[in-house]
Records
---
Amino acid sequence: MRTAHTITDLRKALQPLRRDGRRVGLVPTMGALHDGHWSLVEQARRSCETVVASIFVNPLQFSPGEDYEAYPRVLDDDVAGCAQRGCDVVFAPAPGEMYPSPPLARVAVRGLSERLCGRTRTGHFDGVATVVAKLFNVVQPDAAYFGEKDYQQLVVIRRMVRDLNMPIDVVSCPTVRDPDGMALSSRNAYLDADQRSHARLISAALYEAVESVRSGERDGRRVLAEAGRRLAADPVLQVEYVEIVHPKTLEPVARIDHPARLCVAARVDAVRLIDNMLLDPTERAE
Ligand code: PAF
């Protein structure tokens, strides 16, 4: 496996690996890699001969006061993990390599970026779309792999690729969860055991909503009220939003007659967590 820190080195490393129509898969990450990321690498390996993982904590997607400085950086461990899981190349640029000067050209996926997390994280999805577009231009992958855990990000990137005619398959991969139901996230590392016991109520509320739709509930307001009640009952969790949205437009959905996404953002003290699950009215309880 090769590790490239510059765009020139990455292009050199990829040149021979692209020959004979070999498919290149990209797994974009910010590092602190966990089983959720490894599932993306695994998925990429199944359909691509060459797998590139990028590791870059993108300053553009953090607002002032967010955790850019504190974000976990464990590059040596990440690179070793990538080698072990069969990545061919790791691209780990420094901020100055990706942004030699403040970028004047940026990508904005309007509307979708302003919903859900976009209401409080102003500019976040413009930062994500811009860096992902740059990574796509630099790596030129045939396919790119994203987790459903960051559902809004996935929808924004799919729309960017469609609107800008980028010749890339965006592949979504299911959220990987701990045995207690919590979605894996690099930010879980910020939680101590007590905080975690509050955080896991988020997935518990989501599972309960999924079950209620499986049992025949179709009224979105009732599902939301129940999930909201459960989360609000916890003295530590501070709910930012609980919403049922259309899976592509992210617009609120009142009746669950078609598959929809239940999305939650909440804080446990200073740690902001997000999670979501599919509400599928075509699935029936046994
Ligand atoms: O999901 C992430 O880790 C980041 O938002 C991404 C897609 C790597 C862009 O920085």
---
Amino acid sequence: MFDKSTYTNRREQLKKICKGGILFFPGNEESSMNYASNTYRFRQDSTFLYLFGIDLPGLAAVIDLETGEDTLYGNDLDIDDIIWMGTQPLMSENAAKAGINQTKPMSELKKDLQQAIQHKRSIKILPPYRGDHRIFLSAMLEVPVPHVSSFVSEELIKAVVSLREVKEEDEIAQIEFAIDVAYRMHTSMMKLAVPGTWEREIAGQMEGIALANGGMVSFPVILSIDGQTLHNHYHGNLLKEGRIVVADAGCESPLHYASDITRSVPVGGRFSQRQKEIYEIVLAANVNSINNVKPGIYNRELHLGAARTITEGLKAIGIMKGDTEEAVQQGAHALFFPHGLGHMLGLDVHDMESLGEKFVGYDETVTRSTQFGTAYLRLAKKLKPGFVFTIEPGIYFIPALIDLWKKEKKFEEFINYNKVDTYRDFGGIRIEDDILVTQTGCRVLGRPIPKTVGEIEGMMG
Ligand code: GLY
Ligand code: MN
């Protein structure tokens, strides 16, 4: 955990922003895989970690905005638990580490909440994203499950977003730790990407490095020679000369801050001319976007800038044609770049996505585009110092999408379908870094991971 002052300061700030009532935060529970006691690795709720720091199941916390009091609800272990799990700190000791003086057994929680409801006090929660949470909340609040959402507070969501989106120094250090582990994950991948290796062998090594460094992967490893499938979790292919391995993977630091890095490398360690040409376009989109980061710029501008770089690059090799501005404005580039430039990063790899992208990536000054491609942009709003986010442009040749657009004669003025057809077996390329917005520009976080053609070929040997 961070020092207890970190958690008390965060809660004090929250208390200043929220306007009354009771803020109720259930922690996450163990989650069963195939029978009750065989569980997935425990993952605490991220906002619970942010405000209370205690990385254990079986907890809930309440902040009373009238009295200013924070209460941790949870049970001390009994002797049966201790036999299986060993002696653990008392609840009061856990609470003290988070700067909380008051603890109560879990059995008191419902009574306290019901008493507050009887006194017509408002209870505010964040959107639940696990089924067991909805059932727990339904029981505690004495409402049917479908009515639980009526307790979700937009005021609380916005307050939490306003705090979590600006990273403190200690948080940035955690993210950089996670990126330094990702350095080892990705450079190992580069060394293993030779013909005859199975994708699963590399994915397993990458996950193992995350575990060996004290965290878990921040999302299931995406690794495939079929990188044209954006989130490909199938690892059953044998690596073949001529394909590109897209590896999109990161891990969690000990305090659960995420890294999220993508590198795309040629099987066998040497880019072909055709691969190099596409790679350099994606690299230019990545580097130009990074160079344009500064406080006050809309991330949607960076996304559209990357789309322009991609369109220009594809025009130069005859895959696209026509006026770049027109092509991007109409969304023709999305045949090759059908996703957003990036997302917030922090305690979640898509930071705070459970709170709702419209609050995290958008605000009253920018609404989500409905256009294919840009509609998937998770972060569009103005960047502020302290934001940490990803920049991850890509170019993909997706046969099903190519066929669909060609049949519909879509954007024939901007796309040379005959040329595109010669790339159907290409796969995809994505390059992703994690970026901190500073007062004057930005910093690419962590130890630099080989990224240029020369650096990657040098690492692959
Ligand atoms: N790294 C996975 C994603 O950004 O969606
Ligand atoms: Mn990402």
